[in-house]
Protein backbone atom coordinates (compact mmCIF):
# COMPACT_ATOMS: atom_id res chain seq x y z
CA UNK A 1 0.00 0.00 0.00
CA UNK A 2 1.15 3.51 -0.67
CA UNK A 3 1.32 5.85 2.30
CA UNK A 4 -1.93 7.67 2.86
CA UNK A 5 -4.04 5.18 0.91
CA UNK A 6 -7.08 3.74 2.65
CA UNK A 7 -6.65 0.69 4.84
CA UNK A 8 -7.96 -2.40 3.03
CA UNK A 9 -10.88 -4.27 4.54
CA UNK A 10 -9.08 -7.58 3.97
CA UNK A 11 -5.40 -8.22 3.56
CA UNK A 12 -4.19 -11.79 3.11
CA UNK A 13 -0.45 -12.21 2.62
CA UNK A 14 1.32 -15.41 1.61
CA UNK A 15 -1.28 -17.57 3.34
CA UNK A 16 -0.70 -21.31 3.67
CA UNK A 17 -3.26 -23.59 5.31
CA UNK A 18 -2.62 -27.29 5.90
CA UNK A 19 -5.48 -29.61 6.83
CA UNK A 20 -5.05 -33.20 7.90
CA UNK A 21 -1.35 -32.88 7.17
CA UNK A 22 -1.93 -31.85 3.54
CA UNK A 23 -1.55 -28.39 1.99
CA UNK A 24 -4.96 -26.90 1.10
CA UNK A 25 -3.98 -23.27 0.47
CA UNK A 26 -0.59 -22.27 -0.82
CA UNK A 27 0.87 -18.77 -0.91
CA UNK A 28 -2.49 -17.02 -1.28
CA UNK A 29 -2.30 -13.24 -1.26
CA UNK A 30 -5.37 -11.09 -1.65
CA UNK A 31 -6.29 -7.53 -0.81
CA UNK A 32 -9.89 -6.33 -0.76
CA UNK A 33 -10.51 -2.61 -0.60
CA UNK A 34 -13.18 -1.26 1.71
CA UNK A 35 -16.47 -1.19 -0.21
CA UNK A 36 -15.41 -3.73 -2.83
CA UNK A 37 -17.61 -6.68 -3.85
CA UNK A 38 -15.46 -9.69 -4.71
CA UNK A 39 -16.61 -13.07 -5.99
CA UNK A 40 -14.48 -16.07 -5.00
CA UNK A 41 -14.81 -18.92 -7.49
CA UNK A 42 -13.22 -22.27 -8.24
CA UNK A 43 -13.86 -25.96 -8.59
CA UNK A 44 -15.05 -28.15 -5.71
CA UNK A 45 -12.22 -28.65 -3.27
CA UNK A 46 -10.14 -25.75 -4.60
CA UNK A 47 -10.00 -24.14 -1.14
CA UNK A 48 -12.67 -21.41 -1.23
CA UNK A 49 -14.32 -22.28 2.09
CA UNK A 50 -10.94 -22.74 3.74
CA UNK A 51 -9.88 -19.29 2.57
CA UNK A 52 -13.08 -17.71 3.92
CA UNK A 53 -12.71 -19.55 7.23
CA UNK A 54 -9.13 -18.32 7.56
CA UNK A 55 -10.25 -14.82 6.58
CA UNK A 56 -12.72 -14.62 9.47
CA UNK A 57 -10.36 -16.29 11.93
CA UNK A 58 -12.07 -19.65 12.45
CA UNK A 59 -9.31 -21.54 10.60
CA UNK A 60 -5.70 -21.12 11.73
CA UNK A 61 -3.08 -20.31 9.13
CA UNK A 62 -0.02 -22.52 8.80
CA UNK A 63 1.95 -19.55 7.44
CA UNK A 64 1.26 -16.01 6.31
CA UNK A 65 -0.80 -13.17 7.78
CA UNK A 66 -4.41 -12.00 7.64
CA UNK A 67 -5.56 -8.54 8.65
CA UNK A 68 -9.04 -7.05 8.66
CA UNK A 69 -9.30 -3.28 8.63
CA UNK A 70 -5.60 -3.08 9.46
CA UNK A 71 -5.75 -5.35 12.52
CA UNK A 72 -4.73 -9.00 12.81
CA UNK A 73 -7.75 -11.27 12.39
CA UNK A 74 -7.16 -12.62 15.91
CA UNK A 75 -7.84 -9.17 17.36
CA UNK A 76 -11.32 -9.41 18.86
CA UNK A 77 -11.98 -5.76 18.06
CA UNK A 78 -12.41 -6.57 14.38
CA UNK A 79 -14.97 -9.31 14.98
CA UNK A 80 -17.83 -6.87 15.56
CA UNK A 81 -17.24 -5.52 12.06
CA UNK A 82 -17.67 -8.89 10.35
CA UNK A 83 -20.78 -10.80 9.35
CA UNK A 84 -20.08 -14.40 8.26
CA UNK A 85 -22.42 -16.95 6.71
CA UNK A 86 -20.72 -20.35 6.54
CA UNK A 87 -21.44 -22.92 3.86
CA UNK A 88 -24.68 -24.85 4.31
CA UNK A 89 -25.52 -22.74 7.33
CA UNK A 90 -27.34 -25.21 9.52
CA UNK A 91 -28.63 -22.48 11.76
CA UNK A 92 -28.26 -23.83 15.27
CA UNK A 93 -28.35 -27.54 14.50
CA UNK A 94 -30.90 -29.21 16.73
CA UNK A 95 -31.37 -26.24 19.08
CA UNK A 96 -35.07 -25.34 18.78
CA UNK A 97 -34.49 -21.57 18.51
CA UNK A 98 -36.97 -19.59 16.46
CA UNK A 99 -35.95 -17.54 13.44
CA UNK A 100 -36.35 -14.37 15.51
CA UNK A 101 -34.14 -15.73 18.32
CA UNK A 102 -31.47 -16.87 15.89
CA UNK A 103 -31.28 -13.51 14.13
CA UNK A 104 -31.24 -11.71 17.51
CA UNK A 105 -28.13 -13.67 18.57
CA UNK A 106 -26.34 -11.65 15.89
CA UNK A 107 -26.82 -8.62 18.16
CA UNK A 108 -25.07 -10.27 21.07
CA UNK A 109 -24.01 -8.28 23.88
CA UNK A 110 -23.65 -10.66 26.80
CA UNK A 111 -26.82 -10.80 28.86
CA UNK A 112 -28.62 -8.46 26.54
CA UNK A 113 -29.83 -11.01 24.08
CA UNK A 114 -33.41 -11.34 25.32
CA UNK A 115 -34.02 -7.60 25.18
CA UNK A 116 -32.83 -7.63 21.56
CA UNK A 117 -35.49 -10.13 20.53
CA UNK A 118 -37.85 -7.36 19.53
CA UNK A 119 -35.23 -5.04 18.13
CA UNK A 120 -36.82 -3.60 14.98
CA UNK A 121 -33.73 -4.59 12.97
CA UNK A 122 -34.57 -8.26 13.55
CA UNK A 123 -38.05 -8.01 12.07
CA UNK A 124 -36.91 -5.73 9.30
CA UNK A 125 -34.25 -8.22 8.17
CA UNK A 126 -36.56 -11.21 8.47
CA UNK A 127 -38.88 -9.31 6.18
CA UNK A 128 -36.01 -8.50 3.77
CA UNK A 129 -35.20 -12.21 3.41
CA UNK A 130 -38.88 -13.06 2.94
CA UNK A 131 -39.46 -14.70 6.31
CA UNK A 132 -41.57 -12.19 8.19
CA UNK A 133 -44.35 -14.71 8.58
CA UNK A 134 -42.00 -17.26 10.10
CA UNK A 135 -40.28 -15.17 12.78
CA UNK A 136 -41.50 -17.34 15.63
CA UNK A 137 -41.09 -20.70 13.95
CA UNK A 138 -38.30 -22.93 15.31
CA UNK A 139 -35.59 -23.18 12.70
CA UNK A 140 -35.59 -26.95 13.22
CA UNK A 141 -38.97 -26.83 11.47
CA UNK A 142 -37.65 -24.90 8.48
CA UNK A 143 -36.36 -26.05 5.12
CA UNK A 144 -32.64 -25.78 4.30
CA UNK A 145 -33.23 -22.69 2.15
CA UNK A 146 -35.31 -21.01 4.85
CA UNK A 147 -32.56 -21.67 7.42
CA UNK A 148 -30.01 -20.24 5.03
CA UNK A 149 -32.10 -17.06 4.82
CA UNK A 150 -32.26 -16.87 8.64
CA UNK A 151 -28.48 -17.12 8.82
CA UNK A 152 -28.06 -14.38 6.20
CA UNK A 153 -30.36 -12.13 8.27
CA UNK A 154 -28.32 -13.00 11.36
CA UNK A 155 -25.08 -11.99 9.64
CA UNK A 156 -26.60 -8.69 8.52
CA UNK A 157 -28.34 -7.63 11.71
CA UNK A 158 -25.37 -5.84 13.22
CA UNK A 159 -24.71 -3.89 10.01
CA UNK A 160 -21.24 -5.40 9.45
CA UNK A 161 -18.61 -3.45 7.55
CA UNK A 162 -17.39 -6.72 6.03
CA UNK A 163 -19.76 -9.43 4.89
CA UNK A 164 -18.24 -12.85 4.17
CA UNK A 165 -20.59 -15.36 2.59
CA UNK A 166 -20.00 -18.96 1.55
CA UNK A 167 -22.43 -19.90 -1.23
CA UNK A 168 -25.29 -17.85 0.19
CA UNK A 169 -27.65 -18.83 -2.62
CA UNK A 170 -27.22 -22.55 -2.05
CA UNK A 171 -30.62 -24.15 -1.59
CA UNK A 172 -32.44 -20.81 -1.99
CA UNK A 173 -35.15 -20.49 -4.63
CA UNK A 174 -34.57 -18.14 -7.57
CA UNK A 175 -37.00 -15.41 -6.51
CA UNK A 176 -35.44 -15.26 -3.05
CA UNK A 177 -31.94 -15.31 -4.56
CA UNK A 178 -32.85 -12.14 -6.43
CA UNK A 179 -34.21 -10.54 -3.25
CA UNK A 180 -31.07 -11.44 -1.29
CA UNK A 181 -28.81 -10.28 -4.13
CA UNK A 182 -30.63 -6.94 -4.00
CA UNK A 183 -29.77 -6.68 -0.29
CA UNK A 184 -26.08 -7.36 -1.00
CA UNK A 185 -26.16 -4.82 -3.86
CA UNK A 186 -27.68 -2.17 -1.63
CA UNK A 187 -25.14 -2.81 1.13
CA UNK A 188 -22.27 -2.75 -1.34
CA UNK A 189 -23.46 0.54 -2.79
CA UNK A 190 -23.49 1.95 0.74
CA UNK A 191 -19.85 0.92 1.29
CA UNK A 192 -20.08 -2.52 2.92
CA UNK A 193 -17.28 -4.80 1.74
CA UNK A 194 -18.61 -8.12 0.43
CA UNK A 195 -16.58 -11.29 -0.21
CA UNK A 196 -18.79 -14.05 -1.54
CA UNK A 197 -18.09 -17.62 -2.63
CA UNK A 198 -20.16 -18.49 -5.67
CA UNK A 199 -20.30 -21.34 -8.13
CA UNK A 200 -22.16 -19.21 -10.65
CA UNK A 201 -22.33 -15.43 -10.58
CA UNK A 202 -26.08 -15.90 -11.00
CA UNK A 203 -28.08 -13.03 -9.53
CA UNK A 204 -24.84 -11.12 -8.84
CA UNK A 205 -23.53 -11.30 -12.41
CA UNK A 206 -24.03 -7.55 -12.93
CA UNK A 207 -22.48 -6.71 -9.56
CA UNK A 208 -19.33 -8.80 -9.28
CA UNK A 209 -16.67 -6.81 -11.14
CA UNK A 210 -13.75 -8.70 -9.60
CA UNK A 211 -13.49 -12.47 -9.53
CA UNK A 212 -10.78 -14.33 -7.66
CA UNK A 213 -10.45 -17.91 -8.88
CA UNK A 214 -8.75 -20.64 -6.87
CA UNK A 215 -7.37 -23.85 -8.32
CA UNK A 216 -5.97 -26.44 -5.94
CA UNK A 217 -5.27 -23.89 -3.26
CA UNK A 218 -3.68 -21.22 -5.43
CA UNK A 219 -5.05 -18.03 -6.95
CA UNK A 220 -5.12 -18.54 -10.72
CA UNK A 221 -7.15 -15.46 -11.67
CA UNK A 222 -7.82 -12.12 -10.04
CA UNK A 223 -9.64 -9.69 -12.27
CA UNK A 224 -12.67 -9.21 -14.46
CA UNK A 225 -15.07 -12.16 -14.20
CA UNK A 226 -15.43 -12.37 -17.98
CA UNK A 227 -11.68 -13.04 -18.28
CA UNK A 228 -11.63 -15.92 -15.82
CA UNK A 229 -10.72 -19.40 -17.03
CA UNK A 230 -13.83 -21.21 -18.19
CA UNK A 231 -12.82 -24.32 -16.35
CA UNK A 232 -10.05 -25.42 -14.08
CA UNK A 233 -7.09 -25.29 -16.51
CA UNK A 234 -5.20 -28.07 -14.78
CA UNK A 235 -8.18 -30.32 -14.34
CA UNK A 236 -8.08 -33.60 -16.18
CA UNK A 237 -11.61 -33.70 -17.53
CA UNK A 238 -10.93 -36.72 -19.70
CA UNK A 239 -9.70 -38.73 -16.72
CA UNK A 240 -12.73 -37.63 -14.71
CA UNK A 241 -15.15 -38.67 -17.43
CA UNK A 242 -13.39 -41.96 -17.88
CA UNK A 243 -13.58 -42.56 -14.17
CA UNK A 244 -17.28 -41.66 -14.04
CA UNK A 245 -18.39 -43.28 -17.26
CA UNK A 246 -15.81 -46.01 -17.55
CA UNK A 247 -15.06 -45.04 -21.12
CA UNK A 248 -12.78 -42.85 -23.14
CA UNK A 249 -13.93 -39.57 -24.63
CA UNK A 250 -13.03 -38.97 -28.23
CA UNK A 251 -13.20 -35.36 -29.33
N1 LIG B 1 -10.79 -31.03 7.94
C1 LIG B 1 -10.17 -31.35 6.81
N2 LIG B 1 -9.14 -32.23 6.80
C2 LIG B 1 -8.49 -32.54 5.67
N3 LIG B 1 -8.80 -32.00 4.47
C3 LIG B 1 -9.81 -31.13 4.42
C4 LIG B 1 -10.55 -30.76 5.57
N4 LIG B 1 -11.49 -29.84 5.20
C5 LIG B 1 -11.35 -29.68 3.88
N5 LIG B 1 -10.35 -30.44 3.40
C6 LIG B 1 -9.87 -30.52 2.01
O1 LIG B 1 -9.42 -29.23 1.66
C7 LIG B 1 -9.70 -28.97 0.29
C8 LIG B 1 -10.41 -27.63 0.17
O2 LIG B 1 -11.68 -27.72 0.79
P1 LIG B 1 -12.69 -26.48 0.75
O3 LIG B 1 -13.90 -26.88 1.52
O4 LIG B 1 -11.97 -25.26 1.19
O5 LIG B 1 -13.00 -26.38 -0.81
P2 LIG B 1 -14.10 -25.53 -1.59
O6 LIG B 1 -13.41 -24.87 -2.73
O7 LIG B 1 -14.84 -24.66 -0.65
O8 LIG B 1 -15.03 -26.68 -2.14
P3 LIG B 1 -16.62 -26.74 -2.50
O9 LIG B 1 -16.82 -25.95 -3.75
O10 LIG B 1 -16.86 -28.20 -2.72
O11 LIG B 1 -17.36 -26.20 -1.31
C9 LIG B 1 -10.50 -30.14 -0.22
O12 LIG B 1 -9.64 -30.98 -0.96
C10 LIG B 1 -10.98 -30.84 1.03
O13 LIG B 1 -11.08 -32.21 0.82
TrEMBL record:
InterPro entries: AAA+_ATPase, ABC_transporter-like_ATP-bd, ABC_transporter-like_CS, Metal_Ion_Import_ABC, P-loop_NTPase. PROSITE patterns: ABC_TRANSPORTER_1, ABC_TRANSPORTER_2. Keywords: ATP-binding, Nucleotide-binding, Transport. SUPFAM superfamilies: P-loop containing nucleoside triphosphate hydrolases. GO terms for molecular function: ATP binding. SMART domains: AAA (SM00382). Belongs to the ABC transporter superfamily. It comes from Brachybacterium halotolerans. It holds the Pfam family ABC_tran. Transmembrane segments: none annotated. Residues 10-241 form the ABC transporter domain. It comes from the Bacteria. This is Metal ABC transporter ATP-binding protein.
